[in-house]
Design brief:
Layout: E1 11-15, H1 20-31, E2 35-40, H2 43-51, E3 60-64, H3 70-84, E4 89-92, E5 98-99, H4 107-117, H5 119-135, E6 138-143, H6 156-175, E7 181-188, E8 200-201, H7 207-220, H8 225-237, E9 242-245, H9 247-258, H10 263-267, H11 273-279
Helix pairs in contact: 1-8, 3-5, 4-6
């Protein structure tokens, strides 16, 4: 087994750092002695995250980056190299959601989500891997989802992207078994972030369905982001290949392992609007 990863003195790159798990990761990594290159499309939220972390000891830079834009990602990597000189830790955390059944979600919204959730981590990895190689070590952490382990009705776009992140990360990790750069895939369950609130909804969803879905999300997304960040970083520190975040994630992964073809029959009624849509 590889030696534990030391965070102190490393430069960590985090996408989706303006709020939620990304902000919590930034806070926890700063406390562990990391310099930070923080990215998001939300300039105000990003500055809020950074303002509380800047000190004489830690270097914190902010970068307005749309991870669905490959040219923006290339420019981001160049900026990090210019300002930090290195990148050791990459946290591909930025993500979006889209609600509705497959036939209800527009092709444009499907492509928008895949561009951010799937192509974003791939392009970020391609852009930052050379910096890690020049540093002589590194660790890539890709945030998938428990919906990259199970695939609920009403989540075709999101699950497609998160299963894709899982497959990409697993294959990359296998390619790097004897490499100083390691890979961890993270599958959070119900973490209290704004992803559901900010999801793009199909025009076919009624106001009542949207309201019910938001209520269900509020009931299920309860883990505080700082708690999730600590679980993630403990896993990364031990160089774990896979990290499940939350008791719900562990339970759902167990259901999928026990009944890989039939788990959905036993879970109907537990996942809110997606199940209601399937039954309609």
């Amino acid at each position: 087994m590889s030696a534990r990863l030391s965070f102190a003195g490393k430069t960590a790159v985090i996408t989706g750092a303006a709020s939620g798990i990304g902000r919590a990761l930034a806070q926890a990594l700063a406390a562990r002695g990391c310099d930070l290159a923080l990215a998001d499309i939300n300039a105000d939220g990003l500055e809020e995250t950074a303002a509380a972390l800047r000190s004489n000891e830690r270097k914190v830079t902010t970068h307005i980056v749309d991870v669905g834009d490959k040219e923006a990602i290339k420019a981001f990597a160049d900026a990090v190299e210019a300002e930090h000189g290195a990148a050791h830790l990459l946290f591909n955390n930025a993500g979006v959601a889209a609600g509705g059944r497959f036939e209800q979600i527009s092709e444009a919204d499907f492509e928008w989500l895949i561009g951010i959730n799937f192509w974003g981590p791939i392009r970020m990895t391609r852009a930052f891997l050379p910096l890690m190689r020049r540093s002589g070590e590194g660790h890539i952490t890709n945030i998938s989802s428990i919906f990259g382990v199970i695939a609920p009705a009403g989540q075709t776009a999101y699950s497609a992207s998160k299963f894709g992140v899982r497959g990409f990360s697993d294959a990359l990790r296998h390619e790097m078994l004897d490499d100083p750069i390691k890979v961890t895939t993270v599958h959070p369950g119900g973490v209290n972030t704004s992803i559901a609130k900010n999801a793009r909804m199909s025009a076919h969803n009624t106001a009542e369905e949207i309201e019910a879905g938001q209520k269900q999300a509020a009931e299920n997304l309860v883990m505080p982001p700082p708690q999730a960040a600590e679980i993630i970083l403990r896993g990364v520190e031990r160089r774990k290949p896979r990290v499940l975040v939350g008791r719900d994630a562990h339970l759902l992964a167990w259901f999928e392992k026990l009944m890989p073809s039939n788990y959905w029959r036993f879970m109907q009624g537990r996942l809110g609007v997606a199940n209601k849509q399937e039954a309609s």
